[in-house]
Each structure stands twice: as C-alpha cells, then as structure tokens.
C-alpha cells in the first residue's frame, strides 16, 4: 500500500446528542485528519441535559464489528471509551488481544457529568486487571483515578502518587487529568514509561461547554498516534486541542453543551 492514510478506531459508546462518546471521537479524528472508524459497545439516548437511557450492544455483535475492521483496515491506533459492564470489557479485551491495532489509549469512562453510570461499578476491577495492562496510555480524570486506585486525590503529590499506582497496574504511560480539581489552573500530571514526568497547565476556562472533554482529549491522542506522532508530543497536542475546544463554545442544545471540535 502506498502512503496509507492514518487510520484510527474508537471502541466506545454512542452519544445520540453528538457531544461525547463515539460522535466526539469521530469529530476529533476528522479534525486531526485521521480516518476514523468505530466499534460501538453501547448506545445512549442523550442530549445536552444528560443521559436519558443506555443499552449495551450484544457481545457477539461487538466482536463482529471488530472482525470487520481487522479484515480490511490498517489501523494505526485505537482508543476505548464507554465499555458498559464486565461482559463488554472482557469481550473488548479478548478481541484486542487477537489483532494489532497499534497503540491503545484507554479513557476509563465511568460516570457522565449528569450522574448516569456508563460503566457498572463491578467492571472497574475488570478494567484494572485486564484492560490497563494492554493500554499504551490511560487518561483518567480525578474521580476516575480515585475509583481505580481506591484513594482520594486532592494534592499535587497525591496526583503524582496516583499516576505511579496506575503505572503499577500495568499501563505504561499515564495522564491524570486535573480538570475536576478546584484549582485555578487545570493541571494534568503526565508520567511516561521512561520515568519522565511533567505537568501540563492551562488557565481554567469558565464554561458550561465541557460535555465530552475526556473523550475528545483521548481521541486526539489516538489520532496523533495513528499519524505516527511520538507519544509525548501527542499528549501535548491533545491538551492544546481540548483547551481550544472548550475556549470557543458552540451553541447547541439547552443544557450542558459540547466542546467545539472545529476550534
Ligand atoms: N456519553 C458517552 C457515550 C460517553 O462516552 C461519555 C464519555 O465520557 C459521556 C457521555 C460523558 O459525557 P460528559 O463529558 O458530559 O461527562
């Protein structure tokens, strides 16, 4: 194949409202100029007011979607988002072990901002034990990192300790996102496999357009990895992309609006 176009896949849940999940991922892939594909694990009926309902896709059909893509495309990177429950996490893990989709970005999606559970709580253990060891990078926000390591995270030192604990679970590289902290700066802590670590800081943007921020950030990293960008650079591009996406609001819906994938 001559000069194959960068190809990237998201394995996640659909947001009918277009702001998060599969839809945010595909919009981000498009914005980053990578060809995006999707393996849908769950559906949500959702708008900017929140998630009204959700439904998991039968595992056999998740497997079929993955087989279809593996039989045809040269996928250069993948990301996971909403994985719904133990069964779906195990299905995705089993199938990811059968294929080479390149570097894997795991966004350990748990609860939507409105409170709807996108992952059943007993599936956290399955993610920790089975999915994180497959991940090139994991990108939890503070509440997700707290659930994964089972500890409160308040101070900078606790964020640093949390990243080390996440690495101990088998993920090579970690970003603990500080967007949910009370601080004026939204500082994320990055710990790389090499042991190198750094903070990524950006002024906190006062906005209600934050729906789908985590999905967009991790999708941007996956798109850059599919393009062959080195991981550290991909993480920094992800931070800049999400900062722009929340700084320039778009005006859709009446509730908690999405981020701006054109920014
Ligand atoms: N819906 C789906 C399908 C998602 O994957 C996500 C990702 O986190 C969300 C909703 C979360 O949206 P919010 O950013 O509003 O918490």
What is the class in the CATH system?
A: Alpha Beta
What value does the Rg take, in angstroms?
17 Å
* Helix/strand/pairing category: alpha/beta
The fourth-level CATH homologous superfamily is Ribokinase
Total number of strands: 9
Q: Helical residue percent? A: 25-40%
Q: How many separate structural domains?
A: 1
Strand residue content: 15-25%
Q: State the end-to-end CA separation.
A: 33 Å
Small molecules (ligands, ions, cofactors) in the structure: pyridoxal-5'-phosphate
What is the overall shape? globular
What is the N-to-C succession of helices and strands? EHEEHEHEHEHHEEEHH
Task: Tell me which CATH architecture applies here.
Answer: 3-Layer(aba) Sandwich
The major β-sheet equals:
9 strands, mixed
What report would you give on this structure?
The protein is α/β, with parallel strands linked by helices. It has a single domain, classed as UDP-N-acetylmuramoyl-L-alanine:D-glutamate ligase, CATH 3.40.1190. The chain is about 35% helix and about 20% strand. It has 8 helices and 9 strands. It has helices at about 20-30, 60-70, 85-95, 125-130, 140-150, 155-170, 215-225, 230-245; strands at about 5-15, 35-45, 50-55, 75-80, 105, 135-140, 175, 190, 195-200. Strands 3-2-1-4-5-6-7-8-9 form a 9-stranded mixed sheet, with helices on both faces. Bound molecules: pyridoxal-5'-phosphate. Pyridoxal-5'-phosphate binds near residues 21, 46, 118 and 213.
């Amino acid at each position: 194949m001559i000069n194959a176009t960068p190809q990237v896949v998201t394995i996640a849940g659909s947001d009918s409202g277009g702001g998060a999940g599969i839809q945010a991922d595909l919009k981000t892939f498009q914005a980053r100029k990578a060809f995006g594909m999707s393996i849908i694990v769950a559906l949500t009926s959702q708008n900017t007011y929140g998630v009204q309902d959700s439904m998991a896709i039968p595992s056999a059909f998740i497997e079929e979607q993955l087989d279809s893509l593996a039989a045809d495309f040269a996928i250069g990177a993948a990301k996971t988002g909403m994985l719904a429950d133990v069964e779906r996490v195990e299905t995705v893990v089993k199938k990811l072990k059968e294929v080479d989709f390149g570097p894997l970005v795991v966004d350990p999606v748990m609860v939507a901002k409105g409170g709807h559970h996108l992952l059943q709580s007993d599936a956290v253990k399955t993610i920790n034990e089975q999915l994180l060891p497959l991940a090139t990078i994991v990108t939890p926000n503070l509440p997700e990192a707290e659930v994964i390591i089972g500890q409160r995270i308040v101070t900078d030192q606790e964020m640093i300790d949390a990243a080390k604990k996440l690495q101990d679970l088998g993920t090579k590289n970690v970003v603990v996102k500080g967007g949910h902290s009370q601080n004026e700066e939204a500082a994320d802590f990055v710990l790389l496999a090499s042991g190198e670590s750094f903070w990524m800081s950006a002024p906190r943007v006062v906005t209600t357009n934050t729906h789908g921020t985590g999905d967009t950030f991790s999708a941007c990293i996956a798109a850059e990895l599919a393009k062959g960008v080195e991981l550290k650079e991909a993480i920094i591009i992800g931070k800049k992309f999400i900062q722009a996406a929340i700084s320039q609001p778009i005006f859709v819906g009446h509730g908690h609006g999405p981020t701006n994938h054109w920014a």
